[in-house]
C-alpha cells in the first residue's frame, strides 16, 4: 500500500505568526498519523513551520523547491526535490498529495488550492477569511473549512479513508 502524503501549503514570507503556529501543529499531527508531509520546502513561513513540526514528531518530510538550488531549503526537510520550475512546481505539490491543507492564504497558496480543486483533490482550508473560504467552496465540493489543526486532521482522515 502506498504511503499517504499530505501537502501543507501556505504563505512563505507573508505568513503570519498564526499561520506559522498552526502549520507547526499541522506538521506534528501529520507525522503523528504516520503520514508523510509535503511542502514547498523553503526555509520560510508555513513551509518551514510545518516541516519543523513534523520533524519534532519524528515524521518524514518532502520539500518541492521552486529553484534548482537548495540554498533556501528548510533544515527540517528530509527529501529535497529541486525543480527549477518556479511556481510551476505547484502542480507537483498538488498531484503528489493525497490531501491538501491550506494554512493561511496568499497568491501562491490560492494557485495551489485552485490546482487541487481542478484535480479533484480534497482541500482543507485553515485560517482563511470567510470570503476566501466561500469562494473556493463555491467552486468545488472538494473544499472544506477546518477551525483548528485537530479538525483539519480529522477531515484529512475522512478524505483519505474515502479514497483508499
How would you describe what is shown here?
This protein is α/β, with parallel strands linked by helices and 164 residues long. It is built from 6 helices and 7 strands, in the order βαβαββαβαβαβα. The protein has helices spanning 17-32, 45-56, 89-95, 107-118, 130-139, 149-163, and strands spanning 5-9, 36-39, 61-65, 79-82, 99-103, 123-126, 143-146. Strands 4-3-2-1-5-6-7 form a 7-stranded parallel sheet, sandwiched between helices. Helix 1 runs parallel beside helix 2 (45-56), helix 1 (17-32) packs across helix 6 and helix 3 crosses helix 4 (107-118). The radius of gyration is 14 Å and the shape is globular. The termini are close together. 52% of the residues are buried. The model has no long low-confidence stretch (mean pLDDT 96).
What's the structural blueprint in terms of helices and strands?
Elements: E1 5-9, H1 17-32, E2 36-39, H2 45-56, E3 61-65, E4 79-82, H3 89-95, E5 99-103, H4 107-118, E6 123-126, H5 130-139, E7 143-146, H6 149-163
Parallel strand pairs: 1-2, 1-5, 2-3, 3-4, 5-6, 6-7
Helix pairs in contact: 1-2, 1-6, 3-4
Summarize the structure.
With 164 residues, the protein is α/β, with parallel strands linked by helices.
Sum up the overall morphology in one term: globular
The largest sheet, given as strand count, sense and whether it forms a barrel, is: 7 strands, parallel
Beta strands, count: 7
Q: What is the straight-line distance between the termini?
A: 9 Å
Nearest-integer average pLDDT: 96
Range of helix content: 40-55%
Rg for CA atoms:
14 Å
SSE sequence, one letter per element: EHEHEEHEHEHEH
Work out the strand percent. Answer: 15-25%
Assembly category = single chain
Q: Detail the poorly predicted runs.
A: none
Please tally the helical runs, counting DSSP H or I stretches of 4 or more residues: 6
Structural class by helix and strand composition: alpha/beta
Across the major sheet, the strand order is 4-3-2-1-5-6-7
Amino acid at each position: 500500500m502506498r504511503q499517504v502524503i499530505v501537502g501543507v501549503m501556505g504563505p512563505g514570507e507573508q505568513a503570519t505568526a498564526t499561520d506559522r503556529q498552526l502549520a507547526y501543529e499541522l506538521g506534528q499531527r501529520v507525522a503523528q498519523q504516520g503520514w508523510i508531509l509535503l511542502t514547498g520546502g523553503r526555509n520560510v513561513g508555513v513551509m518551514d513551520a510545518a516541516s519543523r513540526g513534523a520533524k519534532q514528531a519524528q515524521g518524514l518530510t518532502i520539500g518541492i523547491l521552486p529553484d534548482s538550488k537548495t540554498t533556501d531549503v528548510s533544515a527540517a526537510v528530509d527529501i529535497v526535490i529541486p525543480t527549477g520550475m518556479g511556481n510551476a512546481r505547484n502542480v507537483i505539490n498538488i498531484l503528489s498529495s493525497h490531501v491538501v491543507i491550506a494554512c493561511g492564504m496568499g497568491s501562491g497558496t490560492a494557485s495551489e488550492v485552485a490546482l487541487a480543486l481542478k484535480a479533484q483533490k480534497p482541500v482543507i482550508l485553515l485560517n482563511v477569511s470567510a470570503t476566501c473560504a466561500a469562494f473556493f467552496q463555491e467552486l468545488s465540493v472538494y473544499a472544506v473549512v477546518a477551525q483548528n489543526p485537530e479538525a483539519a486532521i480529522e477531515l484529512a482522515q475522512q478524505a483519505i479513508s474515502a479514497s483508499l
